[in-house]
Queue: 2 jobs
Job 1
Amino acid sequence: MKHLADYLQEQLHVEIPAGMTLCNLGKGKARYAMYKVGPVLCVSHGMGVPSLSILLHELFKLLFHAKCKDVTIIRVGTSGGIGLDPGTVVVTEEALNTFLEPYYTQVILGKETKKPSVLDRGLAEAILGCSSPKDNFKTVLGKTMCANDFYEEQARLDGAVCTFTEKEKMDYLHELYAAGVRNIEMEAVAFAAMCHRVNIKGAVVCVTLVNRLKGDQVTATNEIMREYQRRPQRIVGRYIRQQLGLD
Amino acid sequence: MKHLADYLQEQLHVEIPAGMTLCNLGKGKARYAMYKVGPVLCVSHGMGVPSLSILLHELFKLLFHAKCKDVTIIRVGTSGGIGLDPGTVVVTEEALNTFLEPYYTQVILGKETKKPSVLDRGLAEAILGCSSPKDNFKTVLGKTMCANDFYEEQARLDGAVCTFTEKEKMDYLHELYAAGVRNIEMEAVAFAAMCHRVNIKGAVVCVTLVNRLKGDQVTATNEIMREYQRRPQRIVGRYIRQQLGLD
């Protein structure tokens, strides 16, 4: 999170008094890290829907009490890609659960509820428009499936346990591709539904680390992986610069 | 996690070469922290089932390759209590989902699967037996409900959004109490099911920070909260000492 904050500080020309540095507002003792960089809050959310949902509840309350207006929230992160070269950036056009439905399911007071996981189409397209032909990677619109684990729900065979075959896995991944899914991660459906519910524009912008149709092992070096992870930050950095009239 | 590791080092008389200290095997760059203290691994698991499930898959693989035998895994943590004084330690006798069923539900290759969330009864009773009449707190057996968020699924009214009334919340919490639920946390059902599936004995030992039947705000001071959080560690530390023949 500090890397993103430092990057945005440079990109947005945010000045910090001499001798001072960006500080983690969670003070390293909280479960999330948070940096304020001019008009941008950079916040970590942990892995998976439950961790993200706690963060969003608390962030929404913070933004309300701080009287923030016209807020936009963008999740940047990593994902497994489907049918895309590793290093491709996917801007989510629709967040789907593991039944490929656009809903975030919760059990409230013992009863199942489904909240529509709607993302702002205009925001997604505006972010997509911040890619450049000069980029050394592609940025695409695609559907994103949100899973509740990394191994079985994402059809990986290399967890501690597994109940399906390589063929069943590949058939499933091809079904996802045919349904328009271009990447899988672990937060999008709750992110979309929670932002939609409080009427805050939200977007999900994730780089793909692997093409699941060709294999599950990440073969890139650490250096290449770090460069991949900076790609969504570069695209989103440009979008924020544009919004702030810095270009 | 470092605090637990240091505590167990002292309790288990684990010697460390002069001038050295316990080190985080995740090196601070990984998403989890891990310390090895003699025969005990202390590992953090993040918040919620998805984060825990990644950790357990990877831990099970590690234990397999390290040829570990007769492993026991104990989750220690915090929870919201139901009908118990804050600071009470609950040893989980049964882990339930938010429908109050003893199952961990996953969607694998698009199909719903339910895995029994069975904990080892003998282990729970042995840990319960490590409480002492001299303790300044009670340790009890009880059912634990595992929720996928902190606010709405746990019937809290103080999230960013809420769709039920104080009365509906209290009726629900009383229903949980009547069903034998004594605390709510966010990992137990997957923890139990995953340990059961690979035939590793598992236990969940959590302190309650609040009595939800009397209110949701934690009113204890930071110092008291820290002492509460050490209580499950004390009980589990005694159990490990006993198993190692140190008592």
Job 2
Amino acid sequence: MEACHALVKKGFEITYLPVDRSGQVSAQDLQAAITPQTALVSIMAANNVIGTLQPIAEIGAICRKRGVFFHTDAVQMAGHLSVDVKRDNIDLLSLSGHKFNGPKGVGILFARSEIPLSPLILGGGQEAGLRSGTENVPGIAGLGVASEIAMAEMESEAKRLCKLRDDLINRILADIPGTCLNGHPGKRLPNNVNISFEGIEGEYFTKELSKQGICVSTGSACSSESHEAPYVLLAIGRERELANCSIRLSLGKMTTAEDVNKTVAAICSVAAKIRKQTRVW
Amino acid sequence: MEACHALVKKGFEITYLPVDRSGQVSAQDLQAAITPQTALVSIMAANNVIGTLQPIAEIGAICRKRGVFFHTDAVQMAGHLSVDVKRDNIDLLSLSGHKFNGPKGVGILFARSEIPLSPLILGGGQEAGLRSGTENVPGIAGLGVASEIAMAEMESEAKRLCKLRDDLINRILADIPGTCLNGHPGKRLPNNVNISFEGIEGEYFTKELSKQGICVSTGSACSSESHEAPYVLLAIGRERELANCSIRLSLGKMTTAEDVNKTVAAICSVAAKIRKQTRVW
């Protein structure tokens, strides 16, 4: 979004597409929005806040047909679900190592060789002139190994996490009244749970859960220092109050069924305690 | 240099200062070159090719007096010799972790808080909005530890290396005819040796020495894929042919007097062999 704002300042025109209540972009909307002036379509493969997957294969096909470059931010998806730049007609794809157990501070920008790129960082011309400066060798090696492991385990791990994720979602929604899932129930990241709890302010909930050893977040890590309602939740039609009453839980390689049990129990007791304190419920 | 070229394309005017035969910028030249339009002075603390130290304290004092921001690239110097941003009136200073045994791919830009900086990378606003993206945590931690160790050992290590460096230089110059030192004999990095060998092409010399287990380089690592004569050597007045006949040797924490003995012996025998082959000498 910040990159878009910067482009607007430079005189570019950006079209923002709406999303439905599950957070999905419509391929039809995209089709209609492309004009002869369109230089690039950029759509996240999966949303970082609510986990919703986008129809990137459909979008890729449309862009290729219309002769427009397609970039997807696959940071949340890569290493968790299959992404195939050939199959999905993706011209540019970004991913980040630490999202699948690699080191922090290293990522990949895939670009088809015909894409004209210009560097942000100038100097000694490293990385084919695209990113000058001595390469982050330990990070690159770590990302490579993490990719190999993720590729080998992805299918079984996605299956395992989807089961745990759905168990976590279903039990919270069933056990605690006034809760709703944010994002698509099925077309979502295996490791993402995002739920709104009526009357329970997210920041406070996060702090109380942390005392029980349960780490959750509100909104996205990128905006953890701002206290605005997560714009992603507003975009899917959540009212401001409910948007502020959401938490995000992430599952990972180390998460077990026992962790899910403990988490559900902690969330139930902390939510009941907060609601009793605030007497909203 | 690439950053300067890019600024020129954007309409900025750059003044390049000459250097003397040892590679030093003159403080008087700098003083004369500053105009009311000068926004920034940027001068390396120490040159990466020939190791020459610049009079940065003098330059810093001039810039402060004239109200012009002073940036120094201290990548080669930091961790090896004392740099003090307060004492030397430095407004901006860059350094790189791997130059003093830290990890590759991480560095520091010091900037006084009143310096207006704008980010190159936009996004989540990490690092006070100056460099968005998840931080390179392992790199940052490694750089921190490397800095601590370098600070503790710097004085004794610089002394030790200067002795080895001078031994290496003096023995090569004494034992092999048609050699000359590039850069300042005294005001140079403790770990840098750069010598031209008449009639011995640097790239070939490098390959032959590598067979003996001695790794040296020609020019700078940044331009190792180009085969132009090192512009730094041309700038100090070396003729093109002699500039192409130079090698750079770097000393480090692990370098011993025994290594210097072996290196001198290998250089003497390889140089003699090449000169015999090419019959130039």
